[in-house]
Amino acid sequence: MVETKVYAIWAAVGPLVGVIIGGMLTAWWQRRYWILDNKKAEYRELVDALHNYRWEVTRQVRQFGKVSTSPDVAGPAAEGQIALAKAVDAVWRSLADRFFISKALVNSTIHQDMQNLDHDMSGIDQLSLDQWTKKWYELYGELRRMAWKDLGIRKRMSHSPFGVFSK
Predict the structure, then answer these.
(1) Is pLDDT at 167 greater than 70 in this prediction?
(2) CA-CA distance, 95 to 102, in Å (whole number)?
(3) pTM score, whole prediction
(4) Which of 21, 52, 127, 151 has its CA 20 to 30 A from that of 82?
(5) Over the range 5-44, which residues count as b (16 or more CB within 10 Å of their CB) and which as e?
(6) Chain centroid, CA 147 distance in Å
(7) Which of 88, 142, 93, 90 is CA-nearest to residue 119?
(8) Rounded Cα distance, 63 and 55, in Å
(9) Tell me: the pLDDT tens digits for 115-124?
């Protein structure tokens, strides 16, 4: 008799408990993937800004023979300086205004590495562009490794122009 009552109660309450647990698990799962999607988007924006920065430095060197930050330029050189300044600003803004990856950025050397790269940018010419680009690829590789770890990605690239992804 008692078993019948327990079964009757469980028949009424069991599905409700299942729905509640299922709803909680779904909400947890969706929140987890929402955070991962936002982290991925923030890393993508940072990587895009970093690529644009490298492109502007390379364009300056190819077009004018060196990167100049002198205020005494006009015409295409001044336009190039403005484009480069915007690219540098985009990288620094991308580093500063991240919500979902801010903890990973603070615990890394990305800020210091970018500061060093930015400092080394002044006066780059054809001869030093390859060396600067290698430093850029090292920063880029560190950022990708940090993103892979933060996003839980296990597979890593095994090749690059400078071998920085092979660690």
Answers:
(1) no
(2) 8
(3) 0.77
(4) 127
(5) eeeeeeeeeeeeeeeeeeeeeeeeeeeeeeeeeebbebbe
(6) 6
(7) 88
(8) 12
(9) 999 888 877 8
Residue the block writes with tokens 């210091």: 112
Cα four-point dihedral sign 155, 159, 162, 166:
positive
The answer to whether 137 and 161 have CB atoms below 8 angstroms apart is yes
Q: Which of 15-29, 68-82, 99-113, 117-131 has the highest mean pLDDT?
A: 99-113
Q: How many CB atoms lie within 10 A of CB 88?
A: 19
Only one residue has tokens 């019948």, namely: 4
SS3 (DSSP) at 156:
coil
Spatial distance between the Cα atoms of 78 and 108, rounded to a whole number of angstroms: 34
Q: Contact, 91 vs 55, CB < 8 A?
A: no
Question: Measuring CA to CA, which residue among 90, 89, 64 is closest to residue 79?
Answer: 64
Query: What tokens were used for 77?
Result: 């050189």
